[in-house]
Amino acid sequence: MATSVRAFRRGLYAEHLEEASFLYEQRRALLVNPELAWTQIGDFEGRIEAHIDALVVGGDIALDVCRERVAEGDPGELFAAVCVFCRHAFAPLLAELLQGLDYEDPNRVRALVDALKYELPESWHDPCRRAIGQSEDRRKMLLAEVIGYRRMHGVHLASLLSGSRPDAQRALLWAIGRTRETGAGDAIRPFYRATDISVLSTALRTGLRIHDPEALLNLRTNASAGQSLSIDLALAGGRPDISHLLARLQHAEPAVDVVAALGLLGDLSAVRPLINALSVETLAPTAAEALHLITGAPLFEGVFVADEPKEDELFDKEVRALREQGQVPRRLNGEPFGAKVHRLSIEPTTWQAWLQQHSAEFSADRRYRNGRLYSPIVLLDCLKSDTFPKAYRSLVAEELVVRYGIDLQFEADLLVGSQRSVLLAAEATVSDREAAFDAGRWYTFGRA
Q: pTM (2 decimals)?
């Protein structure tokens, strides 16, 4: 009887892991789904929590199942199992996980990093600090992301940059930008001239976060030389940088990031060129978002988007009709397969009409975000909003640090409950700092 009860419990805990794994993968997809508000992801996180909690209270039998699935299960099961280990604060497991992880499997690495980002117990901070200094590059990358995400101070990450390979350098630089390590400027400045664009961009953004004036100088130099650093320039640049981006918008094949950067900068001189960009198919969705970032115009519409047919999912007859006559499969009622999506209008005349009607609400010598004069409280409201474009939320948090020196210790993939706590706690800080800045003026590193 005891054996059958144990087998039943093992099966039950294995089911909890499988369900948690499925929900974890769903959550990852929803984080980048523009159709779903960031707050709605909390429902999935609550369901993941219920399964993990069941495993935590499951005692030794649940732990045994988790140990097995760490080695044999899919990435989602690894994530859930590591969350359980963290809640038990069973320190030897951290060393085992780091030693036994298949670093060639990016999905398993991501699952372990995610679990440690959300669940790492305080008692494991010192082991992490020690381990990163003794790790080879792949493990160093993993630990750097956790250390930066959790804002674990007291780690001299800058000393590890020299001799690391580019992907490890990028991870270390990102983490330094989060911990804002004192005295890191001298160590990161050589990377302002890195040939690897991802290392260069990360180094410059880290320099902006620690308010290093040389970072902005090098950013402008690199941008003028043609490097793809438009978003980085949008985080710290001023009105003189608008002309550079507008000139790039006139290139034969302007990049989408140039359009997004103009939206983030919020200068009214970009509005007409952005309306013109609506006529370019590859730029239209981003141009609409950029116009919305500046004006706040609620020009949303419901549009049917047909599914792209995949031949390996079609019957032979449907494949022939698609190839020979261009006919796509349809439902029984004759309608094509697809879904109705809620998106910003990409019709130039719609935007022109709205701007003509609301032009008196804007002043040419100020910058705007969502139709309001750009300021710390407006940026905080963007982070709290359910309708603000989700893809830009992480950049808004960067703007608060770079423009106004307000570090909320915010990440766009924080659990929803943690995000709410961070944003609620930030209200007093942002309100206190608001009076120090003239809304709509250009600031970098807290200075006009």
A: 0.88
